[in-house]
Amino acid sequence: MAETELAPKVVAARSLVEAAYSTLRREILDGTLEPGSKLRFEMLRQRYGFGASTLREALTRLVGESLVTSEEQRGFRVAEISLEDVADLTQVRKLIEVEALRQSILAGDDAWEANLVAAFHRLSKVEARLPTNRLAEQDAFEDANRAFHMALIEACPSRWLKQMHGVLFQQSERYRRICLCNRVIERDVHAEHAAVMEAVLARDVERACVLEREHIQRTLDVLKVVFAGQDAPGGGRGAEQDA
User: Fold this and answer.
1) Which pLDDT tens digit goes with each residue over 147-183?
2) Model's pTM, two decimal places?
3) Which of 49, 62, 122, 156 has the smallest count of CB within 10 Å of its CB?
């Protein structure tokens, strides 16, 4: 068979894997697929309509993101969550993100500032809608929040710091979404973002780093209360506590 005849089949197969991956990832992040739950192929086929090979490839990608675990002869499971894990993740994220922010402020130019201001503006628009549309705006908030945090460190000259930050931020997403649905501590996240933004634009490196470190820590503080009050906290739907 000619290569051109194979191409549409390859594209279709990749599209199916991408669809399966996106569907599974979303339902793990929002708690529909609960932490620790068994991911049996038969159940997944019936639920989503994807074939076994498509599901296996999608699950393998999720293993690489630490959202799914795989054990020989025991299949796949949604990765567990724990306070110990998020505490460790938070400490490492503070080390990496704060250093990346410090370097970014020192190296950033006018174009970096403009991009950061734009990202903050988009995030502010979403944050303004959250009080009345938390469920509907949750994904938009996560996207805008991620874009803002990435914009903060974009001028960092270290490729590895930025890469590690991206991994840590992604690993934190499931915990952020748990935080989003649990308003156990009063918190003005928009004010936190605005304070960081003000310090960054003023090129006040020390203040910006302190504020960013505190911003990240506050999510862990919320999760400590959530975990203390729930035997098995799930994924998030709604609210406005995030880092």
Assistant:
1) 999 999 999 999 999 999 999 998 898 888 888 767 6
2) 0.80
3) 49
* Residue 67: closest CA among 25, 19, 17: 25
Number of C-beta neighbours around residue 39 at 10 A: 19
Give the gyration radius of the chain's Cα atoms. 20
Half-sphere exposure of 215 (CA within 13 A, CB side): 23
Which candidate, 134, 150, 239, places its Cα nearest to that of 188?
239
Angle, alpha carbons 123-19-66 (nearest 5°): 70
* Beta carbons within 8 Å of 127's beta carbon, 6+ residues apart: 141, 144, 189, 190, 193, 240
Count how many residues are written for the chain: 243
Mean pLDDT rounded to a whole number for the chain: 87
Residue 236 in this model has a pLDDT that exceeds 80: no
CB neighbours (10 Å) of residue 76? 22
- Return the domain boundaries, the chain: 3-78, 83-229
Return the CATH fold of 3-78.
Arc Repressor Mutant, subunit A (1.10.10)
| Cα separations in angstroms, 168 against 65, 66, 102, 162, 176 | 10, 11, 17, 10, 12
Helix, strand or coil, per DSSP, at residue 3: helix
CATH 3.30.160.270 matches 83-229: no
SS3 77: strand
Is the pLDDT confidence value at 140 over 80? yes
